[in-house]
Amino acid sequence: MNILVIRLHRLGDILQLCPLFRGLKSIYPSSNLYLLTGEGYESLFIENPDIDHIIPLPEKKYRYWMKNAKDSRVFNELYDLIDDYKKVDFDLIINRQYETGAMLAYLIGGKQVVGGSYHPDQGFFFSDSVSESLCKVIKTDRKMNRTNLVDWSLRIAGVHHSIPSDRYLAPSRQSLIEAESLLGGTIKTGSPKPVAVQIGASRAFRQWGIENFALLISWLTKVKGKTVILIGSPEEMNNSNALLEKISDRNHICNLVGKTNLGTLAAVLDQCETLITGDTGPMHMAAMLGASVLALFYGTAFPWETAPYGKGHFVVFPDVACAPCADPARCREDHFCKKQITPAIVQEAFQVMKAKKEHLPSSGDRSSASLPIYVTAFDRNGEQTLFPFDRESESCGYHATKVSLREPVSLSLIDVNLLEKNREAVIKNLLSGDLSKGFQMFSEYIGLYSQFLRQNPEIYSLAEGGFAGIIESCSRGLHAGDPVAIIDALRYKFPLSTEFEKREGTDRGS
Question: Is 32 helix (H, G, I), strand (E, B) or coil?
């Protein structure tokens, strides 16, 4: 059986496919598994026993040719590549690159294509129901999604019952040699493993801030006695230099920002105890290597989608009503979510994670109780889930109970009057014909209502049985652009008290 997986760019998205490769090989052990990816990423998978053939596509070069010279060479090279792999006769193509990948899948040809398909007569479309469901939940309201994108990929390929592993990635022997040379004796034999810190991110709103990292790193080195390794891309070198200027004692800091390629970065992370980072490509790399991750999520990042995959990773996430944000550049709250994550909270999360890893008693009285620390685990179906650490069972095993409703931050009490005021405002906008604003306000109302349920357990128990169905019907209404379904749900399906009854006499059209 010949299988082709397509994912061309974005480091984190490519690394999140590692469990898919493992799952495919477990179900089809004699298959030939091909990975079509962007040139430069292939070095990560040299030692991956689950991948038989890697097809590097020089995507950046092709984009440059088409943009700057409109050079016909791109079409000649693509023609040759497609012609070569048409001869393979693929039984299954799993496209995780959507439109571009769908066109490549169509041109190469396969007996079955999932994840996104293309045909000249139809354009881009989904030929499998799982991909269509993923698209709907992401486009309507990401807050409703409780499935990690890794598990979505496994579902799309039909291998979602695979057994989770602790390690999906291994650095090459050459990368280990190069990393040892870069570290230059930083990691001494018999000494504790260092802590890696990713201070940058691809975009400014994803960056936690130099001041925050300076305080955190000083605490790690002076109070916890840790050696810290700074990692990052060449574009982040200015930030790392500015950071080091704010730290007086730099004897226990190894600055590798801008000095690693993907292979050596993997080799460096493979020798670290923990990576502290935002939602970045290196976060997924560390998770696939089996290193523990302490991840900070804010802005557009949503941990139920992209938390580090595996058991026992820790996530700090201020679950405010407007999170995850659609456009941080236009935030009217001065990036309130990011400001909730203080160095003190990250220090606490680090100590809790370390205590759990070493099977030591963790601090039961949490000084930062207003901001939950989430832990990754697997449910009975082998899919990743998140739950607050203070509700974690000691085993933290594969059979953790999946959280059916988000655990929002109790930043302030939500009363019935506020909910009723917001509900009527949503209904008013929907009835006036301002659907775009009405649907956006409804999404915000879901966040407020979830927080209200958390603060009122007696209402939560009343609503929980049918809450998933309510959200699903609302999701369908949003996707179909049907305001009546949303109005009906607001009026008849969201209990605000234990005496909740449907108001049958209300005119639904008014």
Answer: strand
Distance CA 70, CA 255 (A): 41
User: In the 8-state DSSP scheme, what is residue 67?
Assistant: I
CATH number of the 174-391 domain: 3.40.50.2000
DSSP-assigned beta bridge partners for residue 198: 231
Q: Quickly list H helices, 194-236.
A: 210-222
What size, in residues, is the chain? 510
Strand partners, 314: 294, 375
Give me the pLDDT at residue 177, please: 94
CA distances in angstroms from 260 to 281, 287, 388, listed in the order given: 14, 18, 35
- What is the distance between the alpha carbons of residues 238 and 240, in angstroms, rounded to a whole number? 5
Angle between the N-to-C axes of helices 435-455 and 483-492, in degrees from 0 to 180, rounded to the nearest 10? 30
Angle at 228 between CA 227 and CA 232, to 5 degrees: 155
What pLDDT is attached to residue 142? Answer: 83
- Helices marked H in 17-109 — which ranges? 18-27, 59-64, 73-86, 98-108
Residue 485: count other Cβ atoms within 10 Å of its Cβ.
Answer: 16
Residue 79: HSE in the Cβ half-sphere, 13 Å Cα cutoff: 5
| Phi/psi at 127 (5° precision) | -95, -10
**Of residues 44, 40, 50, 49, the one with CA closest to residue 5:** 50
How many Å apart are CA 395 and CA 379, to the nearest integer?
13
d(CA 278, CA 298): 8
In the block, tokens 């802005």 appear at: 299
Domains in the chain: boundaries: 2-157, 174-391, 416-492
CA distances from 450 to 26, 148, 204, 467 (A): 39, 20, 30, 10
Radius of gyration from C-alpha coordinates of the chain: 24
Q: Would you say 197 and 213 are in contact if contact means Cβ atoms under 8 Å apart?
A: yes
**What are the tokens at 73?**
């060479």
What span, in angstroms and rounded, lies between the C-alpha atoms of 412 and 452? 10
The H or E element containing residue 373 is strand 373-378
**Number of neighbours of residue 407 by Cβ within 10 angstroms:** 18
List average pLDDT for each run of 10 residues in the chain, which is 510 residues long. 96 97 93 96 92 94 77 83 95 96 96 95 93 86 86 92 85 94 84 92 78 97 96 93 94 96 96 96 97 95 95 90 80 82 94 83 49 85 82 37 32 66 85 74 71 62 51 60 78 69 40
Of 333, 330, 290, 331, nearest in space to 311 by CA: 290
Helix (H) or strand (E) holding 34: strand 32-38
CATH number of 2-157: 3.40.50.2000
Cα of first residue to Cα of last residue in the chain, in angstroms, is 59
How far from chain centre, in Å, is Cα 453? 25
Q: Do domains 2-157 and 174-391 have the same CATH topology?
A: yes
Query: By 3-state DSSP, what share of the chain in percent is helix, strand and coil, each rounded to 5?
Result: 45, 15, 40
